[in-house]
């Protein structure tokens, strides 16, 4: 069973709909009435585009989305254990070591044994990591402009506020859902 419920012509066909609907209205109208008004359905369908755009944008500069999250966390919160780094970014602790290895190999972070607890590693951002983070900030800003193109500044802020509120509500009830190790 395929993921898409779009007509055979996809978005292009929806864009030329004879009733004058926009591409988005044509696509949404092709979905069953029971699902097209469900926020969860729309969030999931939108997330597919967000993940694709994010992977493409970071891959184009030789990075990955989790590189950005980890470097941003280290810049904002300072050096931390791998476990804390995973918590700050919402990544599963078991995946963080692999993610950090990539950044260590690139010279963007340093891993050192915690002198207070020899079982822990402390991760610190390097000057090269700070420079890479600045490059990633540009990628992320451009990415947001592409992803949120149909929204004006106020609508973007409102969307972020509403999504944050929903996420915080469910996180308080169920804990933070960890992301699987992201491939890009």
Question: How would you describe this protein?
Answer:
It contains 9 helices and 3 strands, in the order αααααβααββαα. With 184 residues, the chain is mainly α. The protein has 2 domains: 1-37, no CATH class; 38-174, Winged helix-like DNA-binding domain superfamily/Winged helix DNA-binding domain (Arc Repressor Mutant, subunit A), CATH 1.10.10.10. The protein has a 3-stranded antiparallel beta sheet with strand order 1-3-2. The protein is globular, with a radius of gyration of 20 Å.
Strand order of the largest sheet: 1-3-2
Structural class: mainly alpha
Please name the CATH topology of the largest domain: Arc Repressor Mutant, subunit A
Largest sheet: 3 strands, antiparallel
Order of helices and strands: HHHHHEHHEEHH
Mean pLDDT: 84
Total count of domains: 2
Distance linking N and C termini: 25 Å
**What is the count of helical runs?**
9
Q: What CATH architecture of the largest domain would you give?
A: Orthogonal Bundle
Q: Which overall shape is indicated by the principal axes computed on the Cα atoms?
A: globular
Residue share in β-strands: 5-15%
The CATH fourth-level homologous superfamily of the largest domain: Winged helix-like DNA-binding domain superfamily/Winged helix DNA-binding domain
Query: Looking at the chains present, what oligomeric state does this protein adopt?
Result: single chain
- Determine Rg (CA atoms, Å): 20 Å
Could you give the count of β-strands?
3
- Low confidence ranges: 1-21
The top level CATH class name of the largest domain: Mainly Alpha
